[in-house]
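ok posting inputs for the aspartic acid job
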Amino acid sequence: MKVLKFGGTSVGTPESLAFVKKIVESLDEPAVVVVSALGGITDKLIATARLAADSDPAYKSNMREIRERHYSVINSVTLPGKAPETLGVVEPLLNELSSLYDGIALIGSLPAKILDQIVSYGERISSIIVSRMIEGASHLDSLKFIKTERWFNRHIADTPLTDRLIKEAFTNLGKNSTAVCGGFISTDRDTGVTTNLGRGGSDYTAALIAAALDAKCLEIWTDVDGFMTADPRIIPSAEVIDSLSFVESMELCSFGAKVVYPPTIYPVFHKNIPIRILNTFRPHLSGTWITDRQTSSHTDNPSVKGVTSMTNVSLIEMKGEVVENIPEINSRTFNSLAKNGISVLLVSQQSSGSKFSFAVATADLSRAISSLQTEFAPDLEEGSMNDFTSESEMAIIAAVGEGIGGISTIGPRIRHTFQRAGITVKASSHGSSAASQVCVIREERVKEALQLIHEMFFGRMESDI
Ligand code: ASP
Ligand code: MG
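and the output
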């Protein structure tokens, strides 16, 4: 069996849904189809909630548009004769949503819990619609088997429980049958309240299902041809990457490639289930294969597979005597940040001596600084640590390829190329897996930097690695 996940653009319009229908109905094996909300709906659900919280009456017309959009899709895509039944299931959900908005407008605030409930309607409804569009398909409610637990101020998947519940929920998936369910949505394992796996989380739902059911393959159907050697909006000559290792795909995603939601890779990697990235609108293309196969061949002959960039990054620097104890500074810094759900994007290689620097998303900067201030309060007090400094408007540029961390010339070549162009490298590192070489530069130079390194590794001028 296979798991196929279709993103928002793939399920966004009757025309795109016709592609989905064709792809799924031509399968000759059991399949689980995981869908996102209709394209743009999640954003609109959130925007409407904000309007309601501001008591802006425009929330009502937004709600009407949300309703009409779903009704019109139902009327055009459901199997012959199925529209009334589908409308009968969807209408009460839209009524619930509408009452939630009225409630928010009344109290004039938007509690996080209510927002989680609101965004869930996107996938709850889209999955019902898609299940009524595909011949012989059944619908399963993801809220029943995707379970989260609280982790500091976030919800994270309770994977052992979810794994067990998925196995139970799908036991009756028969030969050649298709089950459709919503991505992204979940419930809290203790309270049962509606939660989600984070924006973009439908990919992750699909991966959890693929892993639990030992799927032959996880197919992520999207609106691009696959992973590219660089973002084609910045580098028009970028090409599709035919194959990647799990680690390479993880590195590309964590440094800005928006092809799949980063946590998606882990569950399938663990089970060694290949992932394919495919274009719903060009299904004849072979897309990108992600497998473990490259690991061995590429350690003998490492090469750069792709380059990425990530903006809205900040660099934090700590100075002082305490910084000289590298194991201590590492564990205290990472623990205090992890407790607040902040991930460190990069730790500078030059963290020797009395300077230690690392990068975080700018959105996390103020929380990062305050958690460090708490952790290092005694050291700041006694003077073994000076204050922290931070610089925003930074960007990360990464070159990714399994084994490239072991090639000592790559880092210096990148730095040299940037230096010649007058681009200052503020910090650099190779990723934890040695599958990437990463630099921090000023955000304003990011396009140029990406062009330079894409040209360096993929340009007509042959690179010598
Ligand atoms: N609909 C959700 C979002 O827009 C989840 C997803 O599409 O993966 O973030
Ligand atoms: Mg997505």
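notes: The mean pLDDT is 93. The first helix runs from residue 14 to 25.
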